[in-house]
Amino acid sequence: MIRIGTLLIAATLVVGLPAASAQTSAAPEAKPSRMKLTMEKLKDMKAKWIANRPKLKACRTEVKAKGLHGDDRWFYIEDCMSKT
């Protein structure tokens, strides 16, 4: 009789633990600061920048000097182009 009770308690714990852990684990929220660029957003940014080629050229030389790559590069150019 004790074995049956112990088995029932063990079975309840085995079944209940994954469900309880699934409820408590929340997905981490994305950082609101800088998200990954989409191709559409990148094309829009480039279209705006082409209107001011000398400034874009200066920003690109700054990026090369800093050695930035990937999204960091595009975010830096975006900040540089928005400066007055």
Explain this structure to me?
By secondary structure, the protein is an all-alpha fold. It has one domain (2-25, 34-82). Helix content is 74%, strand content 0%. The chain has helices at residues 2-24, 39-50, 53-66, 70-82. The chain is rod-shaped, with a radius of gyration of 27 Å. The protein starts with a helix and ends with a helix. The model has no long low-confidence stretch (mean pLDDT 77).
SSE inventory with pairings:
Blueprint: H1 2-24, H2 39-50, H3 53-66, H4 70-82
Helix pairs in contact: 3-4
Keywords:
mainly alpha; about 80 residues
Indicate the radius of gyration in whole angstroms. Answer: 27 Å
- Spans of at least 5 consecutive residues whose pLDDT stays below 50 are none
How many domains make up the coordinates? Answer: 1
Number of strands: 0
Percent helix, as a range, is: over 70%
Q: How is this structure best summarized?
A:
The protein is mainly α. The chain contains four helices and no strands.
